[in-house]
Specification:
globular, seven-stranded mixed beta sheet, single chain, four-stranded antiparallel beta sheet, about 0% helix, mainly beta
């Protein structure tokens, strides 16, 4: 299994970027893709998650209303559309795969689980 992120870059505050997470090597569709970010000196933060099978989504409070996660299953790619970017969104963004289904209350915090596969990360820098 391999996850490859792309789409990071430098953008001014208020601007937009779309990150992509291309997945390969999966022989089943029962997994979830989460987006995480880590800024220098800060802990890693889970920001959004989508079920590959059901399409159910989750957003952390820091990105809710600004970011949108989506999946193109035909391309095995998950996207993170980031709008209204702020300098505090500056971080390395990672996608990760969690094998298996999330049920019920698990969706209240899909990042409490140990994700099975990780991408290499892509840098997002938002200038003020």
């Amino acid at each position: 299994v391999q996850l490859v992120e792309s789409g990071g870059g430098l953008v001014q505050a208020g601007g937009s970027l779309r990150l992509s997470c291309a997945a390969s090597g999966f022989t089943f569709d029962n997994y979830n893709i989460g987006w995480f970010r880590q800024a220098p000196g800060k802990e890693r933060e889970g920001i959004s998650c989508i079920s590959r099978r059901s399409g159910r989504t989750y957003y952390g409070d820091s990105v809710k209303g600004r970011f949108t996660i989506s999946s193109d299953n035909a391309k095995n790619t998950v996207y993170l559309q980031m709008n209204s970017l702020k300098p505090e969104d500056t971080a390395v963004y990672y996608c990760a795969a969690l094998i298996g289904a999330l049920y019920g209350s698990s969706w209240s915090d899909p990042f409490k689980f140990e994700y099975d596969y990780w991408g290499q990360g892509t840098q997002v820098t938002v200038s003020s």
